[in-house]
Design brief:
The structure holds two protein chains of two kinds. Chain A has six helices and nine strands; from the N terminus they run E-H-E-E-H-H-E-E-H-H-E-H-E-E-E. By secondary structure, chain A is α/β, with parallel strands linked by helices. Chain A has a single domain, classed as Alpha-Beta Plaits. By secondary structure, chain B is an alpha+beta fold. Chain B has two domains: 11-54; 64-169, 3-layer Sandwich (Rieske Iron-sulfur Protein), CATH 2.102.10.10. Chain B has helices spanning 11-15, 28-54, and strands at 64-66, 77-81, 88-93, 99-103, 114-116, 121-124, 129-132, 138-140, 149-155, 158-165. A six-stranded antiparallel sheet of chain B has the order 1-10-9-4-3-2, with no helix packed on it. Chain B starts with 10 loop residues before the first helix and ends in a 6-residue tail after the last strand. Classes of the chains: A alpha/beta, B alpha+beta. Chain A binds chain B through residues 59-60, 63-64, 69, 71-75, and chain B through 16, 18-21.
């Protein structure tokens, strides 16, 4: 293992086992609340699932829209949960995040989100979800190892309409792609008949 | 065509940055730490001053002959240096023919005080602080303490300064 490890997400490897969700919810800092969720892409026709963790944007949208100055990015680029004394639980971040990551815990009136398991990664351990993922759809390894073992290419540029987002975490994409473009129009359709 | 330079972020964004390492304002925790450390420093300083005061040795009384004392006319005053050179004192032969001596430094802001023959009192011209020529206590004005009195002793024709009386000595 060489180089600093990075977080790689490969939805094509996800088997929907929910191990990451349950492992995340075991953390004592937010026990019972998972900071990761696994979605079915189109359950009627496919068994494909996608795990969603915080991508840790370089210029985080959630923090930009926070009216209370409660969401902070540390010197490592990790975007943290809202600061408890400041958060007003307004859900601006929930609505603004292009990846759909933040959740507001209504009972404690605070937004909490994935912080890349800072308690573990800061001492050289892998995030809990990457530790338990049996198919390594969530992998926390050095970039050289990903390059050696995967056919897909890690991409960290996302285009949402007119917004371009660069992230710290990588999404595994087909080798032909340099960036992942998401247009809402691509996902709207009319039901025929 | 080159890309235009990135616009400078608005002032409010500089004051409330997203990145923690760009924070410029002191946090509550930093401020409390500053308060605690400053208070601790002042406490240690006070303890040091207190210890210094406790262990201070009283300087031994110096004796010095006052030159020209016998030539002083009634109601006149002269200046001598006691207990060390550069520390001027005022020797006064009062109207009732007594010799008294005080430090010449006003206890307010260390101006040189002078004896007023007409009013029989010691006057500081800087802020009109007046002292009694009898015992050095403050008659009016800003001085907070009486003038330190020099204890005198007559030996034959000569007058000797034999020590300084503090305010607690009933000067």
């Amino acid at each position: 293992m060489t180089g600093a490890p990075a977080f790689f997400i490969d939805p094509s490897r996800c088997i929907g086992c929910q191990a990451c969700v349950n492992a995340c919810a075991e953390c004592e800092s937010h026990r019972g609340h998972s900071m990761i969720h696994v979605d079915y892409v189109d359950r009627r026709s496919s068994i494909a699932t996608v795990p969603t963790v915080c991508m840790h944007c370089e210029n985080p949208t959630c923090a930009q829209v926070c009216p209370a100055d409660a969401i902070k990015q540390d010197e490592n680029g990790v975007v943290h949960s809202s600061l408890k004394p400041r958060c007003v639980a307004c859900s601006n971040c929930v609505l603004a995040c292009p990846f759909g990551v933040p959740t507001v815990l209504v009972e404690i009136e605070q937004m909490m989100k994935c912080d890349l398991c800072l308690d573990r990664t800061s001492v050289g351990k892998r995030p809990m979800c990457a530790t338990v993922c049996p198919s390594q759809a969530l992998a926390y390894v050095p970039p050289e190892e990903i390059e050696r073992t995967r056919r897909e290419k890690p991409v960290n540029v996302f285009v949402f309409g007119r917004q371009t987002v660069r992230t710290m975490n990588f999404m595994m994409a087909p080798p032909a792609l340099d960036r992942i473009e998401v247009d809402v129009a691509d996902y709207t359709w009319e039901v025929e008949g | 065509m080159s890309a235009p330079p990135a616009p400078r972020p608005p002032l409010w964004r500089e004051e409330f940055p997203i990145r923690e390492d760009e924070e410029r304002y002191v946090t509550r925790r930093q401020f409390s730490r500053f308060l605690v450390l400053t208070s601790l420093g002042m406490f240690v300083g006070n303890v040091w001053i207190l210890a210094k005061t406790w262990f201070r040795k009283e300087p031994a009384a110096v004796e010095a002959r006052i030159a020209g004392a016998s030539a002083l006319a009634i109601g006149e005053s002269t200046v001598f240096e006691y207990p060390a050179p550069g520390e001027p004192c005022l020797l006064i032969r009062t109207r009732d023919d007594r010799f008294v001596a005080f430090s010449q430094k006003c206890t307010h802001l260390s101006c040189a005080v002078v004896y007023s023959k007409e009013r029989d009192r010691i006057e500081c011209p800087c802020h009109l602080g007046f002292f009694s020529a009898r015992d050095g206590r403050v008659l009016q004005g800003p001085p907070p303490r009486p003038l330190p009195r020099v204890l005198l002793e007559r030996r034959g024709d000569d007058l000797y300064a034999v020590g300084l009386a503090g305010p607690e000595d009933g000067a």
